[in-house]
Design brief:
With about 150 residues, the protein is an alpha+beta fold. It contains 2 helices and 7 strands, in the order ββααβββββ.
């Protein structure tokens, strides 16, 4: 039998957790011959620091007022432009967004190179590659500079 370092009650030698107070025990937490108590280690400061760092990272990465290029906005706008040119816009299936499909050119201008699968007048599904150059005029305000369709 040994004594729990936290509550000082008698427990069996093999136990890992004290049945009286619930503290996890390990060899470094057990009482020694002089019956000194060693307090269990706590993770409070480390966890708090991790939460603070995570919060700062989240705020910096997902700040809506960031000055980073709006590649997703350019991609979505170019999809809308291409959809308006299709014979059957409801059948349009665009490629999923990928950073490599959108390039920031200069002065809030973006080049979007992607493809769309859609039905033609006869109902056949065709893949059309397109390049759209758009310019950001303001928040959620875009203008088409150039459109090229490759079939």
């Amino acid at each position: 039998m040994k004594k729990c370092t936290y509550c000082a009650k008698e427990i069996q030698d093999e136990v890992i957790k004290c049945k009286h107070c619930g503290v996890m025990l390990s060899d470094d937490l057990l009482t020694n011959e002089s019956n000194k108590k060693v307090k269990p280690k706590r993770l409070g400061c480390g966890c708090s620091l991790l939460i603070i760092i995570g919060s700062v990272f989240f705020i910096v990465m997902f700040n809506s007022n960031s000055t980073s290029p709006d590649t997703i906005g350019a991609y979505v706008f170019s999809q809308q432009v291409i959809k308006n040119l299709l014979k059957s816009p409801r059948s349009a299936i665009f490629a999923t967004y990928n950073e490599s499909r959108v390039s920031y050119l200069t002065n809030k201008k973006y080049g979007v190179r992607s493809y769309v699968d859609s039905q033609n007048s006869f109902g056949a599904l065709l893949r059309t590659y397109f390049t759209v150059i758009v310019e950001e005029k303001g928040k959620n305000n875009w203008e088409v500079i150039d459109i090229k369709l490759d079939e």
